[in-house]
Amino acid sequence: MGPEFGDRKTNFVFIGVDLEGGTIIRELDQCLLTAEEMEEDWTEMEDPYTCEI
């Protein structure tokens, strides 16, 4: 990490029985944006978590 952020980090912990680590990693990796998506207008992207109240 650069000097702007120092040594901060985030840990994401899963606790459970018979968890499939490889499956969890593959599913989380699919949530990441590509380099091209990082450059796009995010307001134009579909929000899968939009809920109507």
Model description:
By secondary structure, the protein is an all-alpha fold. Helix content is 26%, strand content 0%. It has two helices and no strands. The protein has helices spanning 21-29, 35-39. The longest helix has 9 residues, at 21-29. The chain is extended. The termini are far apart. The model has no long low-confidence stretch (mean pLDDT 85).
Oligomer: single chain
How many helices? The count is 2
Helix content class? 25-40%
Low-confidence stretches: none
Summed over residues and divided by their number, the pLDDT gives a mean of 85
Q: What is the N-to-C succession of helices and strands?
A: HH
The secondary-structure class comes to mainly alpha
Q: Give the amount of beta strand, in percent.
A: under 5%
Global geometry: extended
Which radius of gyration do the C-alpha atoms yield?
Answer: 16 Å
Terminal Cα span: 40 Å
Largest sheet: none
How is this fold's topology laid out?
Elements: H1 21-29, H2 35-39
Task: Please outline what is shown here.
The protein is 26% helix and 0% strand. It has 53 residues and is an all-alpha fold. The model has no long low-confidence stretch (mean pLDDT 85).
